[in-house]
Amino acid sequence: MRILQKIAAWGALAAAIGVVFLFAMPTYRQGEASIAGTTARDFSMDIGGKPGHLTDLKGKVVVLNFWATWCPPCVEETPALNHLQKHIEARGGVILGVAADEDPEAYEKFLREQGVIFPTYRDPLTRDNHSPIAQSYGTSMYPETYVIDRHGKIARKFIGFQQWDSPDMLAYFDAILGQS
Predict the structure, then answer these.
(1) Which of 124, 103, 106 lies closest to 47, judged by CA?
(2) What digits encode the pLDDT tens for the residues 87-146?
(3) Domains of the chain by residue range
(4) Topology of the domain covering 35-177
(5) Can you state the angle between helices 72-88 and 167-177, rounded to 10 degrees?
């Protein structure tokens, strides 16, 4: 009888951990209410020594990617983001990375070592691995990406690692870049 109680207690604990794990997974969050059609939140940034705002990119399709150098999935998707940038830039698309990195040297080193070709901005107000800009979008984990159409409206949100240069993803961007 005592052994059955222990097995039941361990089983209940395992089930509880499984439920917590399920709700924490990015794929579960894919079921969040759609934000498609809402206006992307503007923010100021500095890229290449030039101050600007997200709204300066209106008229382009913007792939707003929240990432960090300390995030393994972010590191893993960087080469595919570089490839996607090459694919979309001639047709009015741009990837804009916003990094949740507190250490500017680690950020700069990462950009050099990974050969990042798309514009990026390190949020200088990042604390405890959380970027206030990302948080204003509701981002709590990295990577998280928002596709913003030419009118400044959010077209789609991607949570977690994506294979940005897959045939399906490239076809998606071909379609959205073809819209006016």
Answers:
(1) 124
(2) 999 999 999 999 999 999 999 999 999 999 999 999 999 999 999 999 999 998 999 999
(3) 1-31, 35-177
(4) Glutaredoxin (3.40.30)
(5) 50
